[in-house]
Amino acid sequence: MNYYTMKNNERINLLDIPTIDFNALTAQLAASNLRPVSFFGSDWGENIKLYVILADDENKKLLVTSSLINKNIKEYDSITKENHQYHMFEREFYEQFGIKPLGHPWLKPVRKNQDNYEFFEMQGDETHQVAVGPIHAGVIEPGHFRFMCQGEKIYNLEIMLGYQHRGVEDLMLKKHSNQLAESICGDSVIAYNMAYSQIMEELSGTQITPKAKLIRRIALEMERIAIHIGDLGAILGDIAYLMGKEVYGVTRTLVINTMLEISGSRFGRGLITTGGVNFDIDDNLSKKIVDILNNVKNTVEKMTHAALKSSTVMSRLEKTGTVSLETATELNLVGMIGRSCGINLDSRFDFLDDFYKDLKRKPFKATNDAYSRFKIRYKEIIESISFVKKFLKVLEKHKQENLCVSTKDLIPNSFAISIVEGWRGEIVHVATTDETGKLSRYKIKDPSFNNWYGLSMAVRNNGISDFPLCNKGFDLSYCGFDL
Amino acid sequence: MFDTLKMKLHQKKQYIPDIKNAPMRTQFRGLPVLNNSICDKCGKCKDVCPTGALNINPLSIDLSKCTFCGACKNICKNNAINFSSYYKLGTDKKEKLIVTQEITQEEYNKRAIEVRKEIYSVFNRSIKFRQVSAGGCNGCEMELNAAGNANFDMGRFGIDFVASPRHADGIVITGPITKNMAYALEDCYKSTPKPKIVILCGACALSGGVFQESSELNREFLNKYKVDLYIPGCPTHPLTFINAVLDFIRKK
Ligand code: SF4
Ligand code: SF4
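Predict the joint structure of the above. Result:
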């Protein structure tokens, strides 16, 4: 295949990206075993330009290619027929540009036209449907779940989303800002704002200081620690182990209140800005962070130990909601959920930068079930705590540097990608500029875009009462998906 | 079993005893403190504001739009814009959310939420809400969840979120209200028994926030029905939420 090889956080000239024949491209993608990272259209005068970014995970490279499609073309041969990794990408492309992938096995709406959504149905004695949402029982975002059940057993779960659709990609072109980036998915404020800022810095050729990079990474790991701890509590809450729920809950508070001391917001809003960061971490604060994280680590270790010794907890977690490695690979599951199924992808370490390259990780023994999703979080909390401490040490050497540098105008005809490993997994931002240096396309992919289907597979043949437990284990984003 | 009990001892008491006077970290960006007299009207703050919350003639911030991002403070060379850590920001009228140099903390607090007999006589001891996220980014939702955790524990004041609108005394809306959620939101409102309270929570719900220019919103609902409480923030801090509700349902 004809493609251009690029790195993460790199700007290239739009014209360097090869353009290949549409049918040839789709045929090659159907047969390729490279992982799709992004697949999206962009208006191009009379035509539509389709960009495809593939990850060559073995060789740690990103490959980008494109195709020009005349607006008169209304259909093509679906890639998903052969290669299921494209199923969501093709649905999204169809919804945004109206070019139909013929033979797509489930060409359903993604974010629009929920009124015309045709659910899978099952007929027979004792089969019944359970419809949940868009408004759920708890304080969470909206989405619709349709269960096909026989008795208590789930045969299939279909997930219809789009309720949170705010047109973020279009808004980005109208008026982009760090604050808008932070609000795309408010539980991953740091990760999203980091991806956005990095793209803007690449597109404008701005070099930020190592100090700013370090503070961003400290915040990114703190975000992971906080949300993972909250999730451990939420998982235990759903199986009525309330001690765990409350202890993890208050422990999370310690972490986010520390974030507030750094940035003035419990979720780190306002910390990252294009060109660097707005707030410093001085020696006092640094010491305080270390103390609090040590305390957090102690509590999390104790609590996890106590919870996993309890047979009632273990019997609910073990072998519940299993997703096999084969299924996970076929569906292209990513991030923490992918790792809990044995897919060893982590963009922090797959696309190494100066700061992560010296850090060590232990391998994770995946068991693919709810227990695996519990354990991976525990492992990552402990790891991230040690990462933060190491970053704080390195930060001492960069005290004198500036927090923020001024940015320049965006360079015309550019293409840039930024992948950030948020706590859920890889957050992919891609942007292009036109000949005047204005943003012409902004594409966002949340890890939930890959992983929602994994949840459907996890609950198959499980009791419907285990759905909340599986859902919390996945903890996917609605707004990150709906955009 | 014993390990679980040991954890309880290890944890000790976690709740904030006096929620009305709970201390807040000084770094928190709460009520703005504006100094119009030293503002030289350069307009830079207005340019960086992502939501159009700022006006410079005279200097004012509309808390229904403000995301408390601090960008205006960072760019102002004259130090005319500051944020205090005062967190009791909820009001019962949208107009009261506009802060100018004259609006001090006492002034803001004094007029923020009017005591209404028909409210406190009914809801004084307990008020239950159905929460509807209508395009919220999960920031406000996480903070509303946190309001019920062991630290803030709003359940002790009789404030709770319930699973069904049928069991609720009102609804709390977060998010800018997307087209796709407009129907479900109205349905939920109609399913709530009277008398029903409507609370808007967060910059998105109050004004559309950073999404106000989106073509995917449908804010009709707010023209049709009366809103009882406006609670700013991005996201709304749990203390802001709990105190606003307490001021609303109590005699003071
Ligand atoms: S803090 Fe509020 S007024 Fe200031 S720039 Fe941010 S949104 Fe605008
Ligand atoms: S007000 Fe801010 S935190 Fe709340 S939903 Fe809107 S963007 Fe998210």
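The CA atoms of residues 104 and 193 of chain B lie 38 Å apart.
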